[in-house]
Design brief:
The protein is α+β, with helices and mostly antiparallel strands and about 260 residues long. It has two domains: about 180 residues, no CATH class; about 55 residues, no CATH class. The protein has a four-stranded antiparallel β-sheet with strand order 5-4-3-6. Strands 7-12-11-10 form a four-stranded antiparallel β-sheet. A two-stranded antiparallel sheet has the order 1-2. It starts with 16 loop residues before the first strand and ends in a 14-residue tail after the last helix.
Length: about 260
């Protein structure tokens, strides 16, 4: 087997690859050992995934929604007791803990205020476009490989496909501050239940698909991902989102995740 990013032989690799990071709730959508070599796997974890997952946007999202990392921890967050900024550790749905210094600030506030007001930020500043677009590019190529796993010689197809070289290179060996265009929009509220099973409503942590536009002679492949209702999309074939925007306009801005075979 060869790595789908660096194209080097990867038969001795030990790690499976999570297409969507475990810190965003993915436990089962993975590529087998060797699909992404250990070197590329480690590189993506520290240089591509970490800047996005540790951005204030994703840290706050994971804090608010109680999304644990692979070590079982929810990120800490700054919250307000009146005008006092304190760092909160999320232990449960309505369970927070604070260090002793911050707890003294809370006691002081409660002693001097009649409100007892606590404010938790709804969102945070996102990672820059360079990191976000590389994060999407990495997942996009892996998602395409995942779709092809049951096809004979899938590895050779992905590795040797010249049209995938630009996104492969951008994800693994980008130019300094290079950015690929991508789409980002909210398709439902992050707290909204999106699935009902046996009368019980559930939130969807993440969902993704590959959108194919055009026809057999002129087609484009787009990776589409939603995380708690924030939809992202990137073009696997090049640095352009024109085809995706045209598809959205043609289909009344409905997400591909909820259209056609994915519709209800």
């Amino acid at each position: 087997m060869r790595c789908i990013f660096c194209k080097q032989t990867s038969d001795d690799s030990r790690s499976v690859e999570h297409i969507i990071p475990e810190s965003l709730g993915n436990k089962s959508t993975i590529l087998p050992k060797g699909a992404v070599c250990d070197s590329c796997n480690n590189y993506f974890a520290s240089k591509v995934e970490k800047p996005v997952l540790e951005s204030k946007e994703f840290t706050q999202l994971r804090f608010n929604q109680l999304v644990k990392n692979k070590k079982g921890r929810v990120p800490k967050s700054k919250i307000l007791f009146g005008s006092h900024v304190v760092t909160a550790t999320r232990n449960g749905k309505l369970d927070f803990s604070f260090d002793s210094e911050d707890f003294r600030k809370i006691e002081q506030y409660l002693e001097t205020s009649d409100k007892g007001e606590i404010r938790i930020p709804i969102n945070g500043v996102p990672a820059n476009d360079h990191h976000v677009s590389r994060f999407l590019a990495k997942m996009a190529l892996e998602a395409l490989a995942f779709r092809w796993l049951k096809v004979e010689a899938w590895n050779d197809y992905i590795v040797d496909h010249a049209q995938l070289d630009p996104i492969r290179k951008f994800a693994r060996y980008p130019q300094r501050a290079e950015v690929w265009k991508y789409s980002k929009r909210r398709i439902y509220n992050e707290d909204s239940p999106q699935k009902e099973i046996d009368g019980i409503s559930y939130q969807i942590l993440n969902e993704w698909d590959i959108l194919v536009t055009g026809d057999i002679d002129n087609s484009e492949f787009y990776f589409v991902l939603a995380v708690f209702g924030m939809e992202y999309a990137i073009n696997l074939g090049g640095n352009s989102m024109d085809g995706y925007e045209a598809w959205l306009n043609k289909h009344d801005q409905v997400s591909p995740l909820y259209h056609g075979k994915n519709g209800t």
